Structures are given as C-alpha cells and as structure tokens.
Amino acid sequence: MKALRILYFSLIPLAIFTTGCEESEQQEAAILGVWEAEWLNNSGNGIHENDIMHGKMIFRNDYDAEVEVYGYKDCVFFADTVKQALQWQLVGQGDTLQLFNPSSSFTIAYTIKGLPDESLQLKFMEDITIKLKKL
Q1: Range from 10-14, 52-56, 72-76 carrying the lowest mean pLDDT
Q2: Could you tell me if 121 and 131 are in contact, meaning their C-beta atoms sit under 8 angstroms apart?
Q3: CA dist 25 to 34, 57, 65, 98, 129, Å?
Q4: For the chain, where are the alpha helices, taking DSSP H only?
Q5: Digit-coded pLDDT (tens) for 28-51
Q6: Of 43, 44, 47, 65, which residue is the least packed, with the fewest Cβ within 10 Å?
Q7: Given its phi and psi angles, is residue 94 left (phi above 0), alpha (psi -120 to 50 degrees) or beta?
Q8: Are 35 and 133 in contact (CB under 8 A)?
Q9: Contacts of 81 (CB under 8 A, 6+ apart)
C-alpha cells in the first residue's frame, strides 16, 4: 500500500511537467514561420505616420530568428532597412518571447498578448506593439 502511494505521488509532478512541456511545444510550434510585422509606437499622443514601421520576422525550429525592419526618414524606430540574425526562446510561463544575440549581451523580451494561428501580438514596454501576421 505504501509503495502505491509513493508511486501515485511521484507520478503527479511528472504529469504536470509533461502537460507543461506539451503546452510549451505547442506555443513554440505556433510561433514558427514567416511573419509580416508592423511596429507601432503609441506614446499617448495617438499613432502618427512616423510611429509605424513595417518589416518581417522569421522564426525557425532550430531557434534561429531573422528580423528585418524597413525604416524610413523620420521614422521613430529606424531610418534605414536593418536585418538582424538572432536566436529566440519562450521564457516564463511561455508568455514572453525573448530575442537575443548569443555572441553579445543584446537581449530583448516581448510579452505575448495573443497567439492565434495566423496572427500574434507582442508588447515591448508600455508603448511599443508589434503586430505579426503569418505569411
């Protein structure tokens, strides 16, 4: 009887861990792919033309990420097109997407606000939102 209780209580954490891993794997699988990106700066004064920037994000299953932004003159984000190769990972409860460069100290974390199949919304600080649409 004691052996059955030990077995029962040792399986509960395993079941919880397995369920958590499955959810994390599903979230990671949902993020994979090529996404059209739109950066929005909402500093409280409404969103103006130079507060929007377009680009593209690619998330691969080997945790490589590619971010390409199409900046322009007077854009609050970038004045030029910039392409960056990074790594990605989900952290916390799977509610944070972290982009980082393993060869430097660059790391940026976005709060995931929604993860439906074809669109995704990321939040950085309080005033920057990235809307992603799967291509």
Answers
A1: 10-14
A2: yes
A3: 18, 19, 17, 16, 24
A4: 2-31
A5: 999 999 999 999 998 777 788 899
A6: 44
A7: left
A8: yes
A9: 68, 69, 70, 71
